[in-house]
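Worked example 3. Consider a protein that binds S-adenosylmethionine.
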Amino acid sequence: MPRVRVHQHVNPLAPYFRFTPKPIEIEKIYANPCLPLHLDIGSARGRFLLKMAEISPACNFLGAEIREPLVEEANRLAQEKNLGNLHYEFNNATYSLKFLLEKLPADILQFVTIQFPDPWYKKKHAKRRMVNDNLVETVVEHLKFSGVIFIQTDVDFLAEEMFELFREDEKLREIEIAENPFSVKTEREAAVEEKGLPIYRTMFEKI
Ligand SMILES: C[S@@+](CC[C@H](N)C(=O)[O-])C[C@H]1O[C@@H](n2cnc3c(N)ncnc32)[C@H](O)[C@@H]1O
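Given these inputs, the predicted complex is written out as structure tokens:
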């Protein structure tokens, strides 16, 4: 199937993307809603979660992505493969993740991954960056105890900025890591590794 064509970047501050999503109801989405949940924020075409869902049937997977055509394509693929543990949502994670997760049962969110978010290099575009106080607060609130947040990027200043926002939260303990703890790489990770460029990674556990 040809890959759906989309804009490379969208502006999360644009009115179109500042909508309030309906909260997900996991019992309507997953074959077994009691399984631990892995949330990937900025899931793009969703191939990372697709592979994860295939090799980890004992976990449910949720992708949040701002480019709607990619979400539709990824959900189509998940259905074609009959994966009852995989779902994607059109969501502007910077501003409305909290509404999406509002009805999430406690003690279900086990993993959160944030991988190679757009850097929005210019200072005047800093507000468009995905990880902000809102996002950190929402993720930490819903993460179960001993749940894990994994973050990676190839952009040094963005790594520091994102890592610092999570470090400020006293409910988290940082775990230094050199490698990706998951056995699957995202498309961006594979591309960066192929070029031999550095990748900055860290992990946090909720304590
Ligand atoms: C550089 S891509 C990386 C995709 C994938 N995580 C990977 O590592 O290959 C960043 C992704 O985050 C998405 N994104 C950017 N801002 C977002 C936001 N506010 N909410 C949800 N997704 C967002 C983009 O549309 C894009 O798909």
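Take a moment to read the result before moving on. DSSP finds seven helices and seven strands in the chain. The CA atoms of residues 48 and 187 lie 7 Å apart.
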